[in-house]
Design goal:
The chain is of the alpha+beta class. The chain has helices at 13-16, 80-83, 99-102, 126-132, 159-166, 204-207, 260-264, 307-310; strands spanning 3-7, 21-23, 28-32, 111-116, 122-125, 136-143, 148-158, 174-179, 199-203, 213-218, 221-222, 232-234, 247-253, 288-291, 298-299. Helices cover 12% and strands 24% of the residues. It binds ligand MTE. Residues 87-91, 144, 179, 198, 227-228, 240-241, 243-246 line the site of ligand MTE.
Length: 324
């Protein structure tokens, strides 16, 4: 994966597509080249394999939980090695091979703060939270705004179970989730030009939709650090950047939050970010996607193929920019 970081210029469209380009306020451009690192197949993956070691992860015995096929059983499932070695996690670097750097993240103890418009603010340890939640496995499609995609088995629990556990107040309209801030390990957070911590939000009816999921596992094991351990969001009808990783803060509010990418470049990345092949990104088409590990591009589907579960959420929001 080739990364360029330059100032004051833009790559031609042919190079920008299908990978993303992100501008910060000072017009720095981060351009990502195309192509899965050829070395992926030969990686030994030290550290990654440790995630399924019961001695290392105190929650390993919960996995794999029972499969729930209610939302489909998409195929072909992406080979695990690809999904755990081709990642977006900008806190650890701007290319796709951050999995090594991410192993430095310490995920125990891990405390999640719940606050804002709730009955009573509280903090809970991740292991305690997990023990209270109804775990299941779901196989979901994942569509990145950069046009790569994957199909992976997540383990975790319905986001609506987490929302109920947090006891939001009646007036709460949005839930805001934030990633850990730890610049000593997440070294990109030392760059003051990015609006850290990584922040994302959902409207309450999105967060309590059956499809919205909180992932704590992947491929039947505790989720690896590069994929967002110990706890991340998965909203498969939206572009992947909505699915915030390594969550430490959950806040309920009546004001729409400004998310990380929106703060950087609001004419390219919006709050709703629902997948729509007919609405191009300002600099590239969203009509097709490239599954990880495949040489073929395939058509992208409206709401990433999950319209039957989520399209009703947007019937009364037609005036909004739902697809960016
Ligand atoms: N969460 C944080 N904290 N930092 C990130 O850079 N990248 C997002 C999302 N969540 C990101 C994040 C993007 S752009 C995508 S496509 C997915 O994570 C990638 O998830 P994966 O690496 O598990 O495939």
């Amino acid at each position: 994966m080739l990364i360029k970081r330059s100032t004051g210029w833009q790559l031609p469209e042919r190079q920008a597509t299908p990978e993303g380009l992100y501008l910060d306020r000072r017009r720095l451009v981060q351009a990502m080249g195309l192509g899965l690192a050829a070395s992926a197949a030969s990686l030994a993956l030290p550290g990654v394999a440790a995630a399924d070691d019961k001695a290392v992860d105190p929650t390993a015995h919960f996995y794999p939980p029972k499969r729930n096929d209610k939302f489909g059983d998409p195929t072909p499932v992406t080979p695990e090695r690809l999904a755990i070695t081709y990642n977006n996690y900008y806190e650890f670097g701007t290319d796709k091979s951050i999995w090594r750097a991410a192993q430095k993240l310490e995920i125990r103890p891990w405390t999640i703060k719940v606050g804002g418009m709730v009955e009573k603010p509280f903090e809970i340890g991740f292991d305690d939270l997990l023990a209270k939640m109804p775990l299941e496995e779901r196989v979901y499609r994942h569509r990145c705004v950069e046009t790569w995609s994957m199909i992976v088995p997540w383990s975790g629990f319905a986001m609506k179970s987490l929302v109920a556990f947090c006891k939001p107040a009646g007036g709460a309209k949005y839930v805001v989730m934030k990633t850990l801030q730890k610049p000593s390990v997440m070294f990109e957070q030392k760059d003051p030009l990015w609006p850290w911590p990584y922040t994302e939000g959902l409207a309450m009816d999105e967060a309590t939709n059956d499809l919205a999921f909180i992932a704590t596992g992947l491929y039947g094991k505790p989720i690896g650090k590069q994929n967002g351990a110990p706890i991340r969001l998965v909203v498969p009808w939206k572009y992947g950047f909505k699915s915030v990783k390594s969550i430490v803060s959950i806040e309920f509010t009546d004001k729409r939050p400004v998310s990380f990418w929106e703060a950087l470049q609001d004419n390219e990345y919006g709050f709703w970010a629902n997948v729509n092949p007919k609405v191009p990104h300002p600099r590239w088409s969203q009509a097709t996607e490239k599954p990880l590990g495949s040489d073929e591009r395939i058509p992208t589907q409206l709401y990433n193929g999950y319209g039957e579960f989520v399209s009703s959420l947007y019937e009364n929001r037609k005036s909004e920019k739902l697809f960016m």
